[in-house]
Specification:
CATH topology: Rossmann fold
Strand order of the largest sheet: 2-1-3-5-4
CATH class: Alpha Beta
Number of helices: 7
Radius of gyration: 16 Å
Structural class: alpha/beta
Strand content: 5-15%
Number of strands: 5
Largest sheet: 5 strands, mixed
Number of domains: 1
Oligomer: single chain
Shape: globular
Length: 170
């Protein structure tokens, strides 16, 4: 449950992100302010010769008291209600699902109308899917988003800016 924990990415993770974005043609580059995304964003910015903007709205879900704890240590009695209804049963001291969807929606609306690569986290990518496509929390968890996953979303003019979103966690 790595949410607000601010740890550096592994070199392998950064390399995987660089390999994933090779050949992408984007005009803008954003990253979450957490190091595991922003450091990968810095490496991508150097290779793509683009400036990197950092936006905390692209952070991972805040897992509160569970942050940094392995799910097995939390236990199914506590986790099951959260997975079933992350709004009614958020982690102790953590963020509700609707809160991350709201903040990611605001970050999407703020994007310039150009192809933009966003280096972010699995939860924020899922929140973007919920915000843009109306998926509920169960539907977005059906998407397999391993580290360095690339998800490309095209938002048509008049709805919001175009976006290319890459997820990096850890």
């Amino acid at each position: 449950m790595i949410g607000r924990t601010d740890s550096a990415p592994t070199q392998e993770g950064v390399t995987a992100c660089l390999e994933r974005v090779a050949g992408l043609d984007v005009s803008a580059l954003l990253a979450s302010d957490l190091m595991r995304a922003s450091k990968a964003g810095e490496a991508i910015a150097e290779v793509m010769a683009l400036p990197l903007s950092v936006d905390p709205r692209w952070r991972e879900l805040d897992f509160g008291a569970w942050d940094g704890i392995a799910p097995a240590e939390i236990g199914t009695d506590a986790l099951t209600p959260f997975w079933n209804d992350p709004d009614a049963c958020p982690p102790p001291g953590g963020e509700r699902w609707s809160d991350i969807v709201r903040r990611v929606r605001a970050a999407i609306v703020a994007l310039a109308p150009v192809d933009t690569l966003v280096v972010t986290h699995g939860g924020a990518i899922r929140a973007a899917l919920a915000a843009l496509l109306g998926f509920d929390h169960r539907q977005v968890w059906a998407f397999d988003l391993p580290y360095a996953a690339l998800l490309s979303l095209r938002i048509w003019p008049g709805q919001a800016p175009a976006a290319q979103i890459i997820g990096l966690a850890r």
